[in-house]
């Protein structure tokens, strides 16, 4: 088991290295000079030269990469061009803000979607199935920014139940923090629930057609016993993998939701950094996102045998 | 569970009540500020917030002229090279220390230290032409600055908002190691808290000494505030800002022009347009094989129904202006008001004279929300096509467009310049040698001489004559088409009055809460 973990971590190293080089090169291929952007149309050749020097942009690309890469190996992702803050603490701070929203949303979505998908499969081609599949398709089809705005207008503006803008951290005031993240969590929850219901239904349908399920029914087991004791574990495997992918994907940035609900999370940090050509922050964010993706999927793989003992670490 | 829900409801009500607390308002910013360090790491939002806390020796009036701010008076020597600033009495910093000429000296030396990274250092150390050779403090209330040559723009440069108004700061603004801490200035508000990515708060400075005046006038005039505190809240999405205004969670926000009529229909919000010296333009690359032909540029100008174009992109609120002198400027006169005339027949005749054979002309535009770049390009494209010009639009992300602007790599571009209050600075923005500065639009040595001349003389009549001459030459050469100045759409809740923005920036020291 330990060998497997180390092997997976070792496999992640080249991924992250390739990511580091790719991100560094790609972001510099995009037209745009962060110094020119900071100075805008007020730039003079002298002020531009000053800023290039201060930001280290007057050095050649290989030199810039060498400095950044060397610092990165020491855990230093550099200093933000726009805010002058160290990148790693900045990324971590913003990540925890996004992570809270994402983890709660995905947890709730999983808790609702998995049983709903199984019930839809169990009641295939009935009104219940049609309703659940229709709802899932609808939820999945609505773009998150629009769903977010609808919630904001309805729950925030019309009913005045929830704050429309702002963010409060849990350490500051847990009650208020909960209020402020209800709508973003609900947006992600509804959207991801659509995805997961469809996967849960599809994988349950496959399992319900297998011989051992027929055998269980032939033994005279109740439908609930067949469904939860025998079908669930096998059917949950693919959904669990999808939950991992969804989690990795969302933890990498929910910029749209964060923008609509004014959450200062990782996604917004990344998008702002791209528009500002804040190279160190873009590089730091993307590298961190890649790391999170790898880590989440590693955890998913390690937990997989709990649901399907046929799959082992070996 | 019931108790938990009750607690949540209580928190919600408290949050709601907090927005309505007396004499405290919330202003939406579309992006976080970059720093609290005046003129160092900044953008428009940063300037807007910081200038509530700090002040310089001089500041801009609404009409673009410069007036004393921390100075009581400013005297210029006969040769125009020495400026003597007499400081106002009774002014104190936020930490209670009185303002003296030593603080001015300290602030100036800090700005001119390369380690400070003050963005305007090159405007005063000779690299951009002007050099401050000597700064002295003959007594506690007097500061003299000696220049290497007379300049009509010296006070303007000191007052520039992007320079942080060359704010006079107290030494306590720095940490013991010399790094930046927070602004300890003399402004009507003192620094409260900055939660990066979330908000900045400022609180009223009770020891504030306002410059004379009975109402706010640009960055000068009456500045004593009735507000106890202001929260500048980051709301990046325009739709969210609109909802926040309607719900009362935000009191003041910049909004989309298209949202103004809808917001004015609500019971709680008032929206309107506020002029700025921003210039909305179509730039031509005069070194382009096609657009190097002045006849073709004039044909494009004649093909544009500029009043219609401006009305369309500003919901009927904007005023056309083809001059480099802003309509709000004291130098905007009848000559400047004379603009291009829409004349499709003349446009067609000019196209024929230019030998135009339907070659494509690409207009670069961007879709930033608070500038009319894309909308103006679409309307111009239709008008140009109507006279037979093969106009095409290429939409670029703003930073990419800026890169193309800086390198001069374009044919035609729908571009907005940031505001310049003195017309000489406005003309300087787009005039200059393309060989050394490819971003410059109008490369004409005679024009450059006029701009240099108007930058050194202070006589208003002489300056007016030069600005008039520049405008006539610009209309003739048509290196660019300025079609209007900024009309910024802002909205505020009806519980707040007097929160009029200035030059596209939030300015709330004149605001007061009049309702719940």
UniProtKB/TrEMBL annotation, chain B:
Gene3D superfamilies in alphabetical order: Dipeptide-binding Protein, Domain 1 (3.90.76.10), Dipeptide-binding Protein, Domain 3 (3.10.105.10), Periplasmic binding protein-like II (3.40.190.10)
Compartments where found: Periplasm
SUPFAM superfamilies, A to Z: Periplasmic binding protein-like II
Family recorded in the similarity comment: Belongs to the bacterial solute-binding protein 5 family.
Keywords tagged on the record: Signal
Statement: the UniProt record of this protein carries the keyword Signal: yes
Domain Solute-binding protein family: residue ranges: 66-434
Pfam family, one: SBP_bac_5
Name of the protein: ABC transporter substrate-binding protein
Signal peptide feature range: 1-22
